[in-house]
Amino acid sequence: MVVSTYLITAVAISGLIFFLSNRVANQILGGVFLIIQIGITVYALQHRGSTDSLYFTFDSLGILLAIVLSILSITTFYHSYLYLKRHAGSVRNDSIYYGALILLIASMTGAYFANHVGVLWFWFEATTLCVSVLIYHERTAIAIEAAWKYIFICSIGISFAFMGILFLSVVAYAGGLTELGLNELMATAKGMNITWLKIAFILVFTGFSAKWGLFPLHTVCVDAHTGAPPPISAFISTTLMNVGFLGVFRIYTIVAQTEALAWANRVLMICGIISITLSAMQLLRVTHFKRMFAFSSLEQMGIVALALSAGGIGYYAAILHIILHSFAKAGLFYHIGQVDRIYHSYWIKDTGGYMKINPLGAIVVLLIFMMVTAIPPSGLFVSELMVFQALFAGSHYLVAALALLLLSVIIFVFGRNFTQLLYSEGTPHQVAENARINKMETFSQFILIALIIYLAFDPPSFFTELINSAVAVLI
Amino acid sequence: MTLIYLALTERVNRFVTLLIIQGVLLFGIAYFQLKHIEFANLLFILLETLIVKSIATPLFLYYVRRRNNLYRLSESNVPTFVSILVISAALVFGFVLSLFLQDLHIKTMFFAVAISAVVTGVYFIISHRNVFTHLIGYLVIENGIFLMSLAVGAEMTMLVHNAILLDIFISVLALGIFINRVGDTFQNIDVDSMSQLKD
After folding, report:
1. How far apart are CA B44 and CA A383, in angstroms?
2. What is the CA radius of gyration of chain B?
3. ipTM of the shown complex
4. What pTM did the predictor assign?
């Protein structure tokens, strides 16, 4: 009953925050929730493989993503505190923000550990509601537009995913199942009707692509980033995309037991390469930092899809990449909040001379540029190397060559726009006179950068063991 | 018939009336399809279809209509005749697909209509530019999905409950609230007014 207790406690804390509407209470209760969040992650790690509250299992992939979520929850709470302190909104709005953030974290945790397709889908729906509230936080026209687009397209996506689950239920019922447990589905997958299974996969994939940030429903994430507060953009681009990845991965593991695997790989490969292509094309004309990072996430998820489709070492690379990308992109979004405080703008043309204005922040930008574009010592270099290894091993030379070419374009665009931010001598739009950045604010970003390098080049044994265990069902 | 009439009308009241009719039809279908399940479960599902689909959601839509002064929406991108053709084609497609996917465990008739409703809903959204009509299109998709859950998932009542959750959480709570906010902020609820998020 640990997960149920955790979820009930999260709802209670969120409700209490909303009811009390008090800044001190927000912080104290937020802190209490973080302790509980870390507690459930540690508990899951200690009870790997065990089932809890009937519909939840502490499997390796769920644990890995929950660890990432717990780490980023701490940093996101910290940056949310800084963001809300400086944006001086009403206490009521701040309480709604914290309450929704706690519910979002709990929903994502529920999705990570769900062992039933219907329950997994439920948590997807819950995350959509919580994120919409958070995107809407600033109550500006852009925030409303972003929230509306997010909730509407995600709802369509969720509906499609549900249709996929209904199709899956037909083949499951034909195989003698009366519930849609993941393990049971995998065990009976071999006897399933391939046509129904393919339809189920394509519908679930299309629906969950809205959360994964991958083609075809990728636009929803891009717009959401632009309207959301930076700490929330950090979540949408990382842990929430991981929820989308996990949803597709769960269905993929069922399909992988059947002869539809090669077909599913082709679907993933096509969507992966289209995502990278769209990302490169959009990045060439992008003029807004947050949209640039959003399109970068589309590219990264495209790489993850390619990794999955290539199979072999690609499976390991996909999970490693999605974890390391979470830390890199979160650091980038946290930092763009500081950049906004100096220039009062996210538009690239409004920035410049950052190296002189905030030297420590400029170092963070340089380092994160290296991390995101997979330049050594970035851990993403290791995961991308594995992805291309897998693509070449699978004789997907054309896809690999095209991906390499597009990645070069993306590195060029990132380099050009970060050079504008760091070194441009032109007069920036408006530099806030009183924008003093506390050096401690960049501390979290240095920690995340260190994690990216450490986890790729000298990973602890439990970490590699968890990834190997997560992909074991596919090999 | 409600799907085809959806393409014909431009009056907002008619859209809502069609949703009420669909809700009542779903209530009847749910009763006959799920008679065998335990009483409490059946009661919950029936109450949901009746209260949420036929009463609460339409009332809420009437409220949104009044608040945003919507009476007639003639902003479709395509002529009515073409829309009727497309929706008729969707119905045919639904039946052909259900024949192609014939399975012992699905109710072919409901499945065909469900597929047609989903395709019609998607088409309705694509062919209209107003946020309100987008919501109507989405609710038609939801009704299609609910019917599909009865057609293929009647043996797994958890899926029927999930289909209900899709109704309550997304359409009523979130979409409706945001429509009002969109109307307040942009002075109208045409999607063209929401175009700040682009490169």
Report:
1. 49
2. 17
3. 0.87
4. 0.92
